[in-house]
Amino acid sequence: MDHSRAPLLEALADYHRLGRYGFTPPGHRQGRGTDARVLEVIGRDAFGSDVLANAGLDDRLSRHGYLARAEALMADAVRAETAFFSTCGSSLSVKAAMMAVAGGHDGGLLVPRDSHKSIVAGLIFSGVQPHWITPRWDAEQHFSHPPSPQQVRNAWEEHPDAAGALIVTPSPYGTCADIAAIADLCHERGKPLIVDEAWGAHLPFHEDLPTWAMDAGADVCVVSVHKMGAGFEQGSVFHLQGDLVDPIRLSECADLLMTTSPNVLIYAAMDGWRRQMVEHGHELLGEALRVAEHARRQLEEIPGIAVLDDELLGVEASHDLDRLQVLMDLAGTGASGYQAADWLRQHRRLDMGLADHRRLLATLSLGDDKGTIDTLVDGIRAWREQLTEPTPARIALPSPADLQLESAMLPRDAFFGPVETVPADNAVGRIAAEQLTPYPPGVPVVVPGEVIDRAVVDYLRTGLDAGMNVPDAADARLRTIRVVARA
Ligand SMILES: Cc1ncc(COP(=O)(O)O)c(C=O)c1O
């Protein structure tokens, strides 16, 4: 295929060149109707390219097939058979993939318990029964690793009738599962593997990055182009191969969830990113990996900071690691990741990928260079130097066993059934009716349908006092929790 072409971008250039005008949405009319103060901040160009997808960029019957051609080029670029663009993030794509595989199927779906909240949302929408795959817990570091092939095998042995399996890899920390071995286990049973590869859009384009799900034999994978690629926020693609997932079912599930007004800016940026990756991705990502290595070495020299690398890998840990995710353990400084992140934002105007009770993550991309890394290293060094006697609020960290809550109801039934709001202390022993998710990384500590225990209430409440963010709780301070009403 001719990867020098970018059909959606070319169509947008034509739209401008031909001076098209639509008596259609968007009502701002390419910026004509936009308040000058808005244009001053956002810029006229953003509005100028915000045009209707059909009966705008393409004609009313999509006769030029710009989107279909861009999707075919994307599939070809990443060695998938089919690709679909979505403008609602992997949050939508993963739900569509789950519904296409397990919707209307009685056997449920194998799902890791440390999945992103969008997967739990997919369970709530679809009514699919999750069969949780236990993550690998490092109790000392208080960290979970993606499931091992053996854990997936165990889950299949317990639930042989499940419709398929879903895994999340890379995790938001860059740690990866052995996708090929897990795909083999699924395929031995004739069942599909879905990979939530939201953090892996760049993986197809460099051999020193972890294995790309399509190369490892997954059936469907979803990526967020806005995370590790260079698309606008919300740009996502699903990739599909093999004959275990019906492409029509998948695209129809996506259609059920999708907006009818997709943002052409998001589409066109994904199209242009694919062309950039095919033409220059290897070189750009090779350079990004060198920059990451440089960052790792510099950060490692700051007293008390350990840049995690080999410690994350092993039989009882992760299979591989994306080294563009620079994860720092701050335990040696005595401070929490929340404190470091807040200081960096306030004093250095730097935002970090993720912070928790002892870690800080810098997510690097092909947009970084030695200059941005110097800013990062200087900022973290300055934070370290001004740190005198850090007194992070104590967090009551639960044991892996305490985090393993009993599932008492389907997530959908618990969420949509009658609920009560009770003081957090009284929620112990009750069935949760809402997700409670520290964000980022967005892995729910409590899923609707699970029996809440004392340890997780103490963890979340002490976590909030220490700087944790639990934005999906109805009461974000967790003075109260929504639980399933007693009959
Ligand atoms: C593992 C994982 N899956 C899915 C998502 C959702 O992706 P998006 O933000 O593109 O909707 C995220 C977001 O952080 C994620 O970390």
Automatic annotation (TrEMBL):
Signal peptide: none
Entry keywords, A to Z: Decarboxylase, Lyase, Pyridoxal phosphate
InterPro entries referenced in this protein's UniProt entry, alphabetically: Orn/Lys/Arg_deCO2ase_major_dom (IPR000310), Orn_Lys_Arg_decarboxylase-I (IPR052357), Prn/Lys/Arg_de-COase_C (IPR008286), PyrdxlP-dep_Trfase (IPR015424), PyrdxlP-dep_Trfase_major (IPR015421)
Domain of life (superkingdom): Bacteria
UniProt domain Orn/Lys/Arg decarboxylases family 1 pyridoxal-P attachment site: residue ranges: 7-306
Cofactor(s) required for function per UniProt: pyridoxal 5'-phosphate
UniProt domain Orn/Lys/Arg decarboxylase C-terminal: residue ranges: 407-467
Family: Belongs to the Orn/Lys/Arg decarboxylase class-I family.
The protein, known as: Ornithine decarboxylase
Source organism of this protein record: Nocardia amamiensis
